[in-house]
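Students often ask why we bother predicting the structure of a whole assembly rather than each chain alone. The short answer is interfaces. A chain on its own may look different once its partners are present, and contacts between molecules only exist in the joint model. In this exercise we take two input lines together and write out one structure for the complete complex. Read the inputs first and try to guess which parts will touch.
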Amino acid sequence: MRKRVKDIIDKATHFLQKRSLQFTISITFTAVAVVGMVIVGASLSMRFISSSEKMISEDSVRMVDQVNLNLDTYLRNMMRISDSMYYRVIKNADLSTDNISNDMSLLYETNRDLLISIGVFSNSGKVIASEPLAQLKPSANVNREAWFANATRKIENLHFSTPHVQNLFVDPDNKYRWVVSLSRSVELTNAGSITHGVLLVDMNFSGIEQICKNVDLGESGYIYLIDGNGEIIYHPRQQLIYSNLIHENNYAAAKYDDGSHNETFEGQQRVITVKTAGYTGWKIIAVTPTADITSTYNQIKIFALFFIFFAVFLLIFVNMFLSSRIANPIMELEHSVKDVETGELSGVDISIAGSYEVQHLGKTIRSMVNQMRKLMDDIVAEQESKRKSELDALQSQINPHFLYNTLDSIVWMIENERYEGAVTMVTALARLFRISLSKGKNIITVEDELEHVRNYLTIQKMRYKNKFSYEIITEPAVLQCATIKLIVQPLVENAIYHGMEFMSGDGEIIIKAYCEGGDLFIDIEDNGLGMPQEQAEALLTEETTKKRSKGSGIGLKNVQERIQLYFGAEYGLSIYSEPDEGTTARIHLPVKTLEELDVSKGGAAK
Amino acid sequence: MTKKKIMVFILILLAFAVSFALLNKDRIFEKKNSDPYEISVIYRSKSAESSTTIKQGIDQAARDLNAEVSFITLARDNDVQEQISLLQREIKNGAKAIVIAPVNSKDLKQPISKAQKSVPVITMQSTVEGMKDLPYISCDNLQLGGALAKAVINNGISDNRIAILQNSMDCSNINQRYLGVTRQLNSAKSQVEYWNIPDDPQEAYDTAKGLLQSSSADTLIALDGATLEAAAKAERDLLKTGSKQVRIYGIGRTNTVVSLLDDRIINSIGVENEYNLGYLSIKTAINHINKNYNTANTNINFAIIDHENMYNSDNQRLLFPFVR
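Now the answer. The structure tokens for the assembled complex follow.
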């Protein structure tokens, strides 16, 4: 059992873990509220039901007690009349001399509302005196009447009959009345001798009816009266029962003890309250159909259900609203953090909304992201500058072969007393170095860069014994534009080594610096062996791993990378080549003066 | 909270409001339902006394089943024209159902079938013969007549002359009783003569008295309460003058009839359970108003009561209803 509960809880937790915060909050709040409401509603309604049932059963008991009291009075009246008749009239009279009719008449007149008749009968059933009618019907047979037989059989008792039609006396109005008879055995004094007789008091049945009729026991509750055997004495629908149109559970009720009972009769549940009346053994039965009790609160039940539904519905909405107020800012925050997760730091706007805690969280995350962004920018900048430095350093390296060969050439020239050539070469070399250094600047003017190349070409031309010619064509406008230093020289070096070296003569290198479409271009054209265009393009994309015996050791890719690091990806190097036709390396740069570059790039260009 | 959600919220709120209104409307409907059923009962005779028990049953049903019953007797016994005009008047006055004891089949057939088109019509005691779908509340009059005739035969009639008192023979229940009686008597091969008794009580008394004096019949069979009462009264008065006693049998219950039975002027009477008759006719009428036609023609119980058994518990309940 415990395992089962644990399983259910685990399942619920697992289920909720997969759901959104808003769903979890609203479903939990609603479930808790509904359970609470149902518990409160159920306990209240149970209380209400039990208290109203108690009230109704107390009502029934009170009513039954009231009826019992009234019935008691009714029966006592009968007994009082019987007692008065017996002890005050009959006991005091000697029938041989006294006439008891006058006293009887007086007693009858005093109680005529209650009485139908009084009669004294001899042991043989003969009328001694009777009121108000005196003549016995010829057909009347007193001895065979139940009340007479009972009185003579048990002479010490008072005997109450069940209701019956009074049929003893001749009534000129042909009236037949329902009566309850009280009979008792009496001692009659006749000329000193004592004989037994029977005193009969017939009380109007409507007296009992009056007692039971106006009892209010709810919508369809009622009271009925049975004798000890279960025979009905009074029932509000007595005639219908006698006519078999409806039925009553009277024989079963006769066996009930005093108090409240629940019974089901003809499919109807009812609460029965039983009280046994004194003297007679009659039972007063109060019947309250359970439907009566329930119908009073059925309406309330419907309304309660209606309001519970309404409240649940309101609760669901309020919960949804509240949970959305709580969850939405968190969800927005979560979305922002998801963006951060993808690494997209620059465009992320961390939302700051909702309650104080969530706002605080948002603010913290925002400052964290900013910090991260800054750190990452710093790292990128650092890496860039590191790379630039590396590339610049690499660029600055002079091919030792070049230097050695140049110096060798100079030595050779001096030895052969070609001082002029040596001077030219040494001068060019000196200039080359001076521009190479450029006081440590990386950005120089196009003029300086071309000067550097010119010096380099001067040296190389002398070394290669005029194997090639060169020409530098510049637009005056571009001379003062800024360029990265030492980007043209490697290209020229390539043109010489790969384009000119294997040529027999007539090698030609043309360097053009010009402006076009707002940009600066520097072309290095040779008429060397050339190569297929694909190969030319591959030079820029593939890692150049081939070790080369000649050249400065720094490839085209290096030049390309440097340009892009300084000016952006839209600038750079492009190679156009055709086998046996020659190759053109084109440097593409923005048109900017040194000052402009200083302003826009800050210190980056230094 | 999106706009859509707020719309849903308002819609559900409206649904709640509508259902709340409907709930209240139900209560209003209930109130309407508690208006009593107006039912008119049109009786066949003018005597209120002979219909006391029926009326008690009707009143009980009216109380139990929430009906408002107007009980109408005729100004003259068995007046067809008056009964027809009362039928029309009651429908015009807005009765929701009519309970009627038709005076005869011939004259009432057309007005009743016309009335049936607007309201349910229930017949009690007597009916209109030949109308199949007309609900009819009564005891089996054929059996009642037969049972009475058996009581006559059981008292020993082999050499006696029997007179059957005839009145309102057009009336279906009396006709049935007559058939029941004659069927039994024919099989017993009795000598039977027929006396025609008029409607008016005094005339009936006089006629009966005259016929009692002139006829040699020593057993009378009356087929309804009024005739029985008139004949028994005449016999009682004749007995005082020293006439020979005739045996009187009859069907019907009035207080006088019961006292004459008690006085042994009447030998036996057949009594149908009139209380049930009244109760069930109203119940059937209400069922028909509510379009519940399942109640088949209902048979009421009856009993043949003589002087000896009139005070036993069952019979005294039948003979002496509680007077409320």
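Check your guess against this: Chain B has three domains: 1-33, 37-140+275-301, 141-272.
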